[in-house]
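Raw record, unedited: Branched-chain amino acid ABC transporter permease
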Amino acid sequence: MTDLVAQQILNWLTLGSIYALVAVGFSLLFGVLNIIHFSHGDVSLMSPFLALGLVQALGAGAGGISSPAAMVAFAIVAIALTGLLGVLLDILIIQRFRTAPAMMALVATVALGIVLRELIRHLFPNGSNPHAFPRLVTGDAMLFGFRVPAFNATAILVAIVAVSLLFLMLNRTRLGLHIRAVSLDRDAARLMAINPGRVFRATFFIASAIGAIGGLFFSSYAGMVRFDFSIDIGLIGFSAAVVGGLGSMPGAIIGSLLISGLDTLVQATVPNGASYRLVFVFLLVIGVLVFKPAGLLGRTVTEKV
């Protein structure tokens, strides 16, 4: 029984870490741009397809590179490419909605997500079918004095390091100061010789790259990747950010842990819980928003008209 509880706690922390990597991207983009980038989940799930594409192209060209070290190297390249993809989408599409009504940006990014999924489905070899995705890390490791699967330990530690570096960047670096200045008042930031366009592009790169890490670990956790995985991870990541309070990165982490905890609990205790887990998850989201519309750590903004 103790081993079962320990396994469920490990699953909770692993899923919570993966969800948090996607959720903080939603909160970061909303906090800076005040735009709900609903296709962020689809951008994040481009990374495992990019990694597999690199394996098939470069690996085959080099005589079939398939070692774990090579897969990790391809994953790092995929993270960088996903970050650049986020910047490209901002330049081509999203920047046109920065001053538009929120509903226009929401609809546009929903449509953009559909476009990305369909591009994968039609351009990636056998894109409509599931593709096996390897464990990025194998074996066992010691985590807080306990022997656990190395993959779970790595996912948790990578999430902690990535989010910690993000907080340090936002609070201790010049770029972080510029991001916070633009998020508070773009016009005042311009008067201080800060280029909002560059800040937006840097923010999109950071948010997309962190989301890409979550996409890679999510696919590795599931053992496969599908073109429509981004729907689930996108909705869950967005819901976690909403539960915690859009624009609050600590809130996004708390929301991710709450959702992953409920997800794990339902699968462990409810008969056929895997089929009903999202029902309970979104009931939680509805319940939080009914009693705390701004989210757990969000602040209600009053507009004077």
